[in-house]
Automatic annotation (TrEMBL):
EC number: 2.4.1.266
Swiss-Prot/TrEMBL cofactor(s): Mg(2+)
Protein name: Glucosyl-3-phosphoglycerate synthase
Domain Glycosyltransferase 2-like: 5-119
Protein family per UniProt: Belongs to the glycosyltransferase 2 family.
Amino acid sequence: MKKVSVVIPAFNEQASIGDTLRAIRERFFCDELIVVDDGSKDETADIASKWADKVIRAPRNQGKGAAVQLGWKCASGDVVMLLDGDLRDSAAEAAHLLAPVLQDVCDMAVAVLPPPQVKAGLGLAKGLAHHGIRMLTGFEARAPLSGQRAIRRELLNRLGSQDKGFGIEVGLTVDALRAGYRVAEVPVFFSHRETKNDWAGFRHRGKEFVAISRTLCWKWWEGQEWKRKS
């Protein structure tokens, strides 16, 4: 039986991290539950310590990508599942994301969430990620920015350093496909906090767009280097 580790990066998630972890503990089996507190200023780490096997406290906010990589490097599972801290009760749906990997259908399963109830933003970041992944790999990603993923340890061990910010999902997809691993998108009824059409929402999407652009440029350059060497 393969050992499953769940890694959750969290930044100022005191309002939802408890519900998320409780749902995992009570309704979804995993061998190891790790929370990486990415320099939160609230009670995220203290709440997480009541449920998680391990809480890693970063001294300052380093970015989602950095927190995710710190978490999976400390995980011991044969399969590592990445989940966001704001899934609340819907985190119990994680079994549907894990199944294709355990059944050897794919090496990385990416959750496709239901469409948001209220459309926010112009979809620029998602569109950039979709077209960038297609340009670099030929893969038509429906959920290029989904942070909910189940990944074989073997695949993670093959990956190089990833973006420290919001470009990590795009980087994971591109690197996995380039290395010949199987990526599958799986509909899962996860739900999480939606960014709004306010200053905080636009700021978040702006940072996401910049990080995705940075990641795609880096992956394009890596591809050119590989072609030159071969």
